[in-house]
Design goal:
globular, 155 residues, two-stranded antiparallel sheet, 8-stranded antiparallel sheet, mainly beta
Length: 155
């Protein structure tokens, strides 16, 4: 292969491989944290309620999250430790996820200060499983919250 052909090949590879993936992490604007607490079942770990600048909201269960496997354990956001007025955000039984980190995307239209409690409930047995109290409302735009973001590229 001559030098010119090799250079053209390298340019073609560079152009094909140097594509911006377009993945730009969202900027986190606020966070509330709840220590998970036993109710009728043991639970360990924390839950982080995170708001982002695009209006999205996530509940993130920490890597040390752990609770026994149950038949129909659902996770709700609410302003009390009950199901009255609660918004279901996940079914751990359907996800088959009872330990380790988990990120749950919350439905659009729910804000970080709309609910104070995370409620784990076994619907099959009509039994409170565990809870988490997010405490004080978040100060959106808190300077102590990391708002850095990265852009992923290939090349």
């Amino acid at each position: 292969m001559n030098t010119r052909s090799f250079s053209q090949l390298l340019c073609t590879i560079f152009l094909v491989c140097n594509i911006t993936v377009g993945v730009s992490a969202q900027n986190q604007t606020a966070e509330r944290t709840a220590q998970l607490e036993d109710a009728n079942y043991v639970i360990d770990g924390q839950a982080h309620l995170r708001a982002f600048d695009d209006g999205s909201l996530q509940v993130v269960l920490s890597n040390d999250f752990d609770t026994p496997v149950g038949p129909d354990v659902r996770v709700y956001l609410n302003n009390s430790i009950s199901l009255s007025g609660a918004v279901q955000i996940a079914n751990l039984s359907d996800l088959n996820h009872f330990s380790g980190g988990l990120t749950i995307n919350v439905s659009d239209g729910i804000g970080i200060n709309d609910y104070d409690f995370l409620v784990f409930y076994c619907v099959s047995f009509n039994l409170l499983w565990a809870t988490g109290d997010f405490g004080e409302p978040a100060d959106e735009g808190d300077p102590n919250v990391c708002t850095e973001h990265a852009t992923a590229t290939t090349g």
